[in-house]
Amino acid sequence: MVGKKLGRSWVKSWVKSWVKSEPINTQVRAQVSNQVRAQVSNQVSNQVSNQVSNQVTGQVTGQVTGQVNPEVNPEVEAHDKAHDGALNGALKELYEIIEKNPGIQRHGLSEKLEKSIFTLNKQIKKLIDEKYIERRGSRKTGGYWIIDKGKK
């Protein structure tokens, strides 16, 4: 087309076809506009929904945590005390056995750890002195328990 003169008839026919297609362009614009509105509406709806959901979740979690923590914290603190590096390997192992088996007796500890009663007596005394564990019950039927921090 370069170098050719555009005739009037060609321009007229192009204008007529463009004018006839204008209603189609209007329809296309309306469809695109509706699609864009729907997408924006969905995005806004999702954002609002997520924000509300996060706020509600945060409030519920805070309320549940506030109610549960006072009951759970003493046990967690006792567990953490033994696991914070304050106990050496043998004492930590003994502590964990008592933690998993509350009320366990010396002979049970001796079997589980495969250590003599004499060795265990020294380790148990150290844990009792440092207030990690306590003995409860009679001499014959009593056992060892982790000290509950909430009761001290």
According to CATH, the fold-level topology of the largest domain is Arc Repressor Mutant, subunit A
Q: What number of domains? A: 2
User: Helix fraction?
Assistant: over 70%
CATH superfamily of the largest domain: Winged helix-like DNA-binding domain superfamily/Winged helix DNA-binding domain
Low-confidence stretches: none
Would you spell out the secondary-structure blueprint of this structure?
Elements: H1 8-83, H2 89-100, H3 106-113, H4 117-129, E1 133-136, E2 143-146
Helix pairs in contact: 2-4
Protein described:
- This protein is mostly helical and 152 residues long.
- It has two domains: 8-70; 85-151, Winged helix-like DNA-binding domain superfamily/Winged helix DNA-binding domain (Arc Repressor Mutant, subunit A, Orthogonal Bundle).
- It is built from four helices and two strands, in the order ααααββ.
- The chain has a two-stranded antiparallel ribbon with strand order 1-2.
- Helix 2 (89-100) crosses helix 4 (117-129).
- The termini are far apart.
- The model has no long low-confidence stretch (mean pLDDT 75).
Structure keywords:
single chain, 152 residues, two-stranded antiparallel sheet
A few lines on this structure:
With 152 residues, the protein is mainly α. The protein has four helices and two strands; from the N terminus they run H-H-H-H-E-E.
